[in-house]
Amino acid sequence: MINPIWLDTFITLVETGNFTRTAEQRFMTQPGVSQHLKKLEEACQCELVVRLGKGIQLTEQGQRVYHYAKGQQDKEQDFIASLKFDAPFEGKCVVACSGAIAQRIYPALLALQKQHSALNVHVEVAPRRTILSGIANNTLELGIVTNQPESEDIHSEYLGEEALGLILPRSLPDALAAQIPELSENAQGFISDSDSDSGSGSGSGSGSGSVAKVASVSGKAKSKTDDGRTIEAVIKHLGLINHPDAMHYLQRYFNDCGEAELANVNPNKLTHTGYINQLSQILLPVSEGLGYTVLPTSTLDFVSFADKLTVYKAKNEVTEPLYSVQTPHSALPARYQAVKRAITQVLG
Q1: Angle at Cα 248 formed by Cα 246 and Cα 254, nearest 5°?
Q2: Fewest CB within 10 angstroms: 125, 208, 266, 307, which?
Q3: 143 closest CA partner among 151, 152, 134
């Protein structure tokens, strides 16, 4: 690498055309200027100037070195200026979060970008552990995760709560209903009170009272169950549609839903009937009666077949806290503040 001090002296020499004036402007002696020129010529392995009395004339190589030196000087000035200038609505913003969160916040971020066209929004879908690792390693600037991380390398701020739901097919397959003695022949529909106002649960048939509590996608169902084993039997026979966050969601749901039978279920021992890592497709096999899953209930707002799905109505609502995460050692660029405000309005 060519010494930048020699290049700066050379630029001044070319622009003044005189060793004396160069020494004055650089606060050097004339021999010092000559020494810088000599070392620069040795580094470039060519003659850069021809001395003409008190003046100079550039060789062809000298002209090239001068333009190179000026380019380097301009780049350095631009770089230093960029460190001092932080536009609030200009530049690239990367937000890492789960797929369910991305579905909720992306429309708001696009609306923000539409207002400020110089803002460049990138949403990265990633699991919690990847987001936290990226923040800790300074490869990510802003992330959204469930549950507050316990690390000195990560600063977190509470955003709001995300509701989790045990999502089932609205109608059980005939073959499955036949395997579950707790369900009467007419109870297999798992139909919510959006179809019937019966206080004992719609589709209860001969009044067995064993229909599991469920909520329609609109959350208005009121059907009851007298036997918690019904929902346990359904999930064990139906099978899990697995996805990257399924085990985490299942464990939290079973622990917090208030159903004694589910609290004793080990998620790791449940039968799996499918796996997919694309959020937009996870509920498709559930809608076809091929399994059940646990997801944020907000995902139902983004599927066209929500009428084929139902959310089990447990005793307790199950939620997860959401936190924004960033490095604690430096403030985010100003452009991230508008992004954080837009996210908070959606999730708060």
Answers
A1: 95
A2: 266
A3: 134
Q: DSSP label at 170?
A: S
CA-to-CA distance for 148 and 177, rounded, in angstroms? 41
Give the CA diameter of the chain: 116
Instruction: Give bridge partners of residue 164 from the DSSP assignment.
Output: 296, 318
Q: Dump pLDDT digits (tens) for 156-210.
A: 999 999 999 999 998 876 655 555 554 443 334 343 433 433 333 333 333 333 3
Contact of 118 with 93, CB cutoff 8 Å = no
C-alpha to C-alpha distance for 139 and 127, rounded to whole angstroms: 15
Give the closest residue to 141 by CA, choosing from 121, 116, 158, 160.
Answer: 121
Helix (H) or strand (E) run with residue 107 in it:
helix 99-115
Q: Which residues contact 241 (CB under 8 A, 6 or more apart)?
A: 272, 273, 274, 275, 276, 282, 285, 286, 290, 291, 292, 293
CA–CA separation, 293 vs 247, rounded Å? 10
CA distance 83 to 67: 25
Q: What dihedral do alpha carbons 246, 247, 250, 253 form, nearest 10°?
A: -110
| CA distances in angstroms from 301 to 173, 189, 203, 298, listed in the order given | 24, 22, 26, 6
pTM of the model: 0.65
Residue 5, classed as helix, strand or coil, is: helix
Pairing of strands 155-169, 318-326: antiparallel
Q: Which of 15, 3, 18, 5 is nearest to 63 (CA)?
A: 15
Identify whether the C-beta of residue 218 lies closer than 8 Å to the C-beta of residue 313.
no
Choose among 122, 163, 165, 133: nearest CA to 146.
163
Tokens of 339: 């992004």
